[in-house]
Amino acid sequence: MKITSVISVISVLSLQKVGKIAVQVVSFCITLMIVYWSWVYFLEYQEAKANRSNAMQVSNPVVHEQIIPITTPDFFTEYRLERDRIRSERTDVLREIIKNAKSEEAKQQAQDAILKMTLEKKQESEMENLIKAKGFGDALVFTQNSSASAVVKSSSLSKEEVIQVAEVISRIAGIKPEDITVSAKP
Asked: Residues of the chain whose pLDDT is less than 50?
């Protein structure tokens, strides 16, 4: 309500009929409204003042900090993370089988599977590190049963480089060179 509407309410009411209490209540309401609108005005003033001070801050010279670019992981890093995540999930499932197995045979099979995964991980890591030691930027090796695949970080591979990679895999994993696939990925 605005002050003019309050005043019109007072004029409509006959002050003689209402009495002193009504006059005091109406006066209190008017005073309360004046205080409220003064407070709202004060808050708006403070907000406008803050906005002006922010505007001044923006116009000040900006000191540029050194920006460090965020690099996204490359194919090799992403694959290793995914491979580790999948192995971790498989290990968790196998541990649950060991924990809840009803037969010794099921428990032993799960334990053997965990041991096999651990050995594969160690073997793959060893092959990848030896391939990188040959001068390649990065390498991934995937072994499965009696075959293997390797992806080497390079724009292209010569026949000699393919043979070098295949020899490392064959020596460590005992896989025949003809069962090894080597490819390049920049």
From this structure: 6, 13-15, 18, 53-59, 62
User: Residue 84: what pLDDT?
Assistant: 93
The domain total for the chain is 2
Task: Say which residues have a Cβ less than 8 Å from residue 185's Cβ, sequence separation at least 6.
Answer: 75, 76, 151, 152, 153, 154
Residue 148 lies in a domain: yes
Please state whether the predicted TM-score (pTM) of the whole model is above 0.90.
no
State the amino acid at position 134 in one-letter form: K
Asked if residues 126 and 159 have their Cβ atoms less than 8 Å apart, the reply is no
Return the structure tokens found at 3: 């002050």
pLDDT of residue 58: 46
Q: The domain containing residue 135 runs over which residues?
A: 114-186
Closest CA to 132 of 76, 54, 55, 48: 76
CATH of the domain at 141: 1.10.287.4300
Question: Which is nearest to 166 in space by CA: 158, 177, 155?
Answer: 177
